[in-house]
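Quick one:
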Amino acid sequence: GANPAVVVGAIVSGAIFGDNLAPISDTTIASALTQGAEVRDVVRTRLPYSLIAGVVSAVLFVIIGFRTSEAVPELVDASYAKTLIMLVIPVIMIILMLKGWNLIGTLIVCDLVGFVLCLVFGFIEPAKMVDAAGPIGAGLTGMLNVICFSFFMFALLEMLTRSGVFDIMLGKLHNASKTPRQAELVTILICFVGSVAIGAASITILFVGPLVRKLLETHNIERTRGSNLMDG
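Output:
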């Protein structure tokens, strides 16, 4: 009985909220990497923005959801309740990252916890876990296109750097950025244009990141702020 438009809005908002805070989000890693910032510091400085937006959105979605729904379901299937235990994984991930763990160590711990929980609670059969179509195999093969795309993009990035194109672009960006606020607005603009042109947020960040770093450091803008501006 829920309003479809409100449901879609809530799902998209929840996805963006999680992606914005996730230490393993491709855009979070890319923005931190290109700005020379630690992922945990980026996540920590991003918490106030994300939590404020998340809380306000959650309250509004509940209010609007009840007001636009035709009926409230009388029964929820309780058999799915135990799967909520898997939410402990992102909690562990955020805690470890904020405590200073590196990304690879954090991912290994969270993967191991996930494997154990799946086996203990019977979510996935042992044979399926190591099957080609299971979480390990499918997780690796599912990222091959992105990996290949990133390799080619890095090659293109290096060609533009060595040919002097980036230096020309940087000079023009400096001329359009006389103040820190103007530099931040230029950062937002080139990320927006890049996203439209390339069609992939993480690749856009990798592409314009080096330019953004050189532009913002001339105005002594914090590395984590540059990361948050690009990711936002």
